[in-house]
Design goal:
There is one protein chain. By secondary structure, this protein is of the alpha/beta class. It is built from 18 helices and 25 strands. The protein folds into 3 domains: about 5-235, Glutamine Phosphoribosylpyrophosphate, subunit 1, domain 1; about 245-440, Glucose-6-phosphate isomerase like protein, domain 1 (Rossmann fold); about 445-590, 3-Layer(aba) Sandwich (Rossmann fold). The longest helix has 23 residues, at about 425-445. Bound molecules: 6-O-phosphono-alpha-D-glucopyranose. 6-O-phosphono-alpha-D-glucopyranose binds near residues 296, 298, 345 and 599.
Length: about 600
Amino acid sequence: MCGIIGYIGEENATDRIIYGLHKLEYRGYDSAGIAVIDGGALVRFRAQGRLENLEAKIKGKKTGGTIGIGHTRWATHGKPSEENAHPHTDCTGEITIIHNGIIENYFELKEELIKKKHKFASETDTEIFAHLIEENISKGFVKAAFAALKRIRGMYAMVILYSGEPDKIIAARKGSPLVIGLGRGENYVASDVPSFLKYTKKAMFLEDGDVAVITREKVDIFNSGKKVKRGVKEIKWSAQQAEKSGFPHFMLKEISEQPQAFEDTIIDRISDSSIKFENIDPEKLKGINSVRIIACGTSYHAAYTAKYIIEKYARVNTVVEVASEMRYSSPVIDKKTLLIAVSQSGETIDTIEAFKSIQKKAGYSIAVVNVVGSTLSRMLDGVIYTHAGPEIGVASTKTFITQLAVLYMFALYMARVKGEAGEKFMKDGIKNLRMVPGFIKTILKDKQKLENIAAKYCGFRDFLYYGRNVNYPMALEGALKLKEISYIHAEGYAAGEMKHGPIALVDDKTPNVFIAPENALYEKIISNIQEIKARSGTIIAITNRSNTTMKKFADDIFYIPDIEEDFYPLLAAIPMQLLAYYIGVKKGIDVDKPRNLAKSVTVE
Ligand code: G6P
């Protein structure tokens, strides 16, 4: 985790770095820090907690340096204190480093360095790296950095400064993301693009094992002892997309952007009756007889929904797994298996590592990611981008809806490739997808009703969410959203499972949220609702507008537009995001940065 940024140029480095850290704060907010070379000396500020604490410390003491690095931390080794905040330095205070990842052999290296009389000021694994460089700094900054890199094991994105050579930044990547922003007479290196998007749209993504030596005018990249070239990508996102633009929170802004994000994701890929993907080879899909989708968190819930749709439309056996479980299991994968990774960031370490162990055994692999150039997008055989734009709120919303857009399109596409879908079937499916953005707009117009429901229930301590079939993963997602941003305990269940346990929890203190549109299973879900009502439970229902019966059973109802039943998750997701959002806000929680979470989890 953690957000890191380095700047070298002609402008005030502190300003550029603080701006970048604001854009990276979603990656961690346990502490923040900055180091700048000014007049040949390193000047460092660090503060526990949010970035605003660091800004308060810097106020009135800003330096004039034009080279510097900054960090926002999600704590792994060592508690979130000022001592453990990055940047860390060596004994001389001339070498300073920021790091995202974990140095696994730090303990033995620390013992070795202590024997050599190095003094440590923090409990972090990171600090040892500055001391390792110090060991060889007499040979020059670059040589010393390479020598230090040889000694460490683990995952890292690192950015290093040395006041003795104030014309360069050194950056190294293994496992954790790093992207270089190429400007005119200035360059950036950061965990993510939004941190420099305002200043340049030219980006170069580093690969594993890359070490970059960055000066004002150029960037030299080395890998395995050789100089290498990395392609320059033009980023299409605008800096404006990464601003709140008048919304009180990024989360509400991003929820509101979903009609556009959905539209952007489908529009260039669909015609009247066919679907195309730019980076997918249909020939490779013909022999596929099983699909395995791997993901974490909210992306897992998008994947879970896709299982129902791919099996129904393409008639291909589909297994969905949480990446961290998949990685240590013994999956049966062969050349007839298609692997799909779903990840908004494309950097989630559990997902990346799960793929490393199985990718070669499979027939074909596809990444569904939002971030162009991210690790998964480069690692797998094919990639389908969700065009959600930058998502800053820690809880995924618009990336989720665009993942669903891609996965629904993919199910139709696969159905066609496998000869399971005729023209009429494709036409109907595409017609339904085209209707989604307009329907989401209708739901958004009704958001006041969800705010009212939130006001009524925000004091409750436990929630249960239920759905059946395609709406079951939505129950899981509804519960996850609520947990993440309101700190209320919530569980999602397949409604049919209610009688096998959760019914014991029914009381007047636990609201039950049902995703219950009128579909083939409506009567069954009404039976579940009645079983709860019979025991004095409370029901909040999400159902379709033309439903006239739900008012007999539910205490509160939110209506969504009528759509063909397979497509309900694409609409039901929205009220659940809004319900969680309003409950979180009413509880006074910073919904964009909920405690202990980070947007992209790049440690195991
Ligand atoms: C973190 C985030 C979640 C996200 C999950 C997977 O836990 O807080 O919102 O769903 O990572 O991230 P990915 O980038 O792989 O979709």
